């Protein structure tokens, strides 16, 4: 249901392509890295610190360091996530 591909992890930046199927509801996540999510395709609902925001293609969502967040997929989507610093847990 979720497919991740690390596109780049150089310097202090990481770019990850994420493909997620309609109906997916993620668990609440929290990490020290800042995150910027660009919606390449589809529609998703981000919940960041209790505030919900529906995003469509070409829109972005910023997630500050250590903020609780989750995603609900409304339409099959492709998201480009940018993290700083690099999320070491995604390199395993």
Polypeptide structure, described:
- By secondary structure, the protein is mostly beta strands.
- The protein has one domain: Jelly Rolls (Sandwich), CATH 2.60.120.
- The protein is built from no helices and six strands.
- Strands 1, 2, 3, 4, 5 and 6 form a six-stranded antiparallel sheet that branches.
- Strand 1 and strand 2 form a beta hairpin.
- The protein is globular and about 35 Å long.
- The two termini are 19 Å apart.
What's the arrangement of secondary structure elements?
Layout (H helix, E strand, L loop, with lengths): L1 E9 L2 E8 L13 E15 L2 E6 L3 E4 L5 E16 L8
Antiparallel strand pairs: 1-2, 2-6, 3-4, 3-5, 3-6
Protein name: Cupin
InterPro entries: Bacilysin_H2HPP_isomerase, Cupin_2, KdgF, RmlC-like_jellyroll, RmlC_Cupin_sf
């Amino acid at each position: 249901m979720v497919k991740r591909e690390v596109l780049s992890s150089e310097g202090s930046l990481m770019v990850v392509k994420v493909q997620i199927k309609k109906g997916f509801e993620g668990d609440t996540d929290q990490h020290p890295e800042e995150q910027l999510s660009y919606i390449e395709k589809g529609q998703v609902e981000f919940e960041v610190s209790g505030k919900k925001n529906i995003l469509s293609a070409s829109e972005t969502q910023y997630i500050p360091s250590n903020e609780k967040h989750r995603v609900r997929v409304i339409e099959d989507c492709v998201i480009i996530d940018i993290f700083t610093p690099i999320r070491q847990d995604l390199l395993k």
